[in-house]
Design brief:
Layout: H1 2-16, H2 21-38, H3 43-56, H4 58-77, H5 79-91, H6 96-111, H7 114-132, H8 136-153, H9 158-166, H10 171-198, H11 208-218, H12 227-237, H13 242-260, H14 265-274, H15 294-312, H16 315-324, H17 330-348, H18 351-361, H19 363-368, H20 374-384, H21 395-404, H22 408-411, H23 416-431
Length: 435
């Protein structure tokens, strides 16, 4: 346990010093490697644990690499400019923060992926918000809140399907159980965003018409611009692999860039690698590209290696056994289930381990207390899945910062659903114990 605490302190120090988080994760990895050698573990065994982490995450690395390319290609072909154009025309007279939360919730429930929702519609909404002069910290918090609802609740979500499979439960039963905490938490969060959105009565709408003209002058826009979006959504809903879905959308965006935006092969390649740039635009449409994700990719490689060596040193299982000793009631069981998921998200830097380990390890405890396993699913989902982006060194938080171009300290305080849902979950079962 001491080794885990020291490792977290090293990671936290890098954040305190405002260094890239992968410095801290790398330092923690070196510390655990040295501690393992000192404790008698062989170098070959530790090396195997370290290498196994990134190898197990190769699909995630492919997807995140392609997200940077997807964003820049959607800018180049006109998808993001068109969606911004329509968003400015339709939503300029409405409570934009409130509707952004609702839109992101709908998109994430449809796609089943928080990162995918942020990388597509989240980028669009943030761009529209910038043009309207809306507070970016509040807006980015609303975007993140809505996005991770899909990870928790969507039948298409890999996280939801994983926790359902690990616990050997029924998806429909899980959704019904999870709605008991979601509905009040969602209404509370929506009310907060409505109030915050209503507190901006004097937004700067004077430049919106100019922005609309600028978009029209710089891009050929029309419904054809939505083809890459439609292809992506359709592929995901057909349950095609995420990387293949994104690749299909990228190819369609490249084709539209040539046919309608008069882009050359060199411009397409430059946008895909270095990101989209258009200095003549007085609107926030730029960025993306493969290289924009390099920090995220380095972090994921180190984070998965870190998780691998934690497992190799048997630190995770021993920590869970110690935490489980204090379980003495049904309420303490569901509390511990959620907290163990959150702690694992914190120390392993990724979401999957925070689902698999408590999903497997806590099963026997639920049988012992004669408690339905739907409560285990709810505790992992409400406390673990919903808070992954609230841990600054977690892969999800790092991707949010990279894709939206905001700091963790900007969006985290305003991602209300990510806080309200765990609070509602703990409170409702404190008032009325689970049956």
């Amino acid at each position: 346990m001491k080794k885990v605490i020291v490792s977290l302190c090293i990671i936290s120090l890098s954040i305190f010093l405002k260094l890239p988080v992968y410095y801290g994760i790398g330092g923690a990895l070196i510390f655990l490697y040295a501690a393992g050698i000192f404790s008698g573990f062989s170098a070959s065994a530790l090396n195997k644990s370290i290498i196994g982490g990134p190898l197990s995450a190769k699909n995630v690395l492919l997807v995140l690499s392609s997200i940077g390319v997807l964003t820049s290609m959607w800018m180049l072909c006109g998808t993001i400019p068109y969606l911004m154009f329509m968003g400015l025309k339709i939503l300029k007279n409405y409570n934009f923060i409130f509707f952004s939360f609702l839109i992101m919730s709908f998109i994430s429930l449809s796609l089943g992926t928080g990162i995918g929702s942020i990388s597509t519609m989240g980028v669009v909404l943030l761009g529209v918000g910038k043009s309207m002069g809306i507070s970016l910290p509040v807006l980015s918090g609303a975007i993140v809140s809505g996005a991770y609802l899909g990870d928790r609740s969507s039948p298409l979500s890999s996280a939801f399907n994983l926790v359902t499979e690990i616990t050997s439960t029924n998806a429909q039963d899980n959704i019904r159980r999870m709605n008991s905490s979601l509905l009040p938490a969602f209404l509370i969060s929506a009310a907060i965003y409505y109030f915050l959105g209503s507190s901006y009565p004097s937004l700067d709408y004077s430049g919106i018409d100019g922005t609309l003209v600028s978009i029209q002058n710089s891009f050929h826009i029309g419904l054809f611009c939505t083809l890459p979006l439609i292809i992506l959504f359709s592929c995901i809903m057909l349950r095609l692999p995420t990387f293949k879905s994104i690749s299909a959308s990228i190819l369609s965006a490249a084709l539209i860039s040539v046919l309608f935006q008069n882009a050359s092969a060199a411009e397409i390649l430059s946008a895909a690698v270095f990101g989209f740039k258009n200095d003549s635009l007085d609107i926030p449409i730029s960025g993306g590209g493969f290289l924009s994700m390099k920090g995220v990719l380095i972090t994921i490689i180190l984070a998965t290696s870190f998780a691998g060596i934690l497992s190799g040193l048997d630190l995770i299982s021993s920590m869970i056994k110690n935490l489980s000793k204090s379980i003495n009631s049904k309420y303490s069981l569901i509390v511990h289930s959620g907290l163990i998921s959150f702690i694992l998200n914190t120390i392993t830097c990724n979401q999957t381990i925070g689902i698999i380990i408590p999903g497997k390890f806590m099963n026997s405890h639920y049988e012992k207390f004669d408690l339905k396993k739907e409560y285990l699913v709810q505790s992992i989902s409400d406390v673990g899945t919903m808070t992954v982006a609230m841990v600054p060194w977690n892969v999800n938080a790092i991707v949010v910062c990279a894709v939206l171009g905001v700091d963790y300290s900007d969006f985290a305080p305003y991602a209300f659903l990510c806080y309200v849902l765990p609070i509602v979950f703990f409170t409702m079962y404190k008032i009325k114990a689970p049956d």
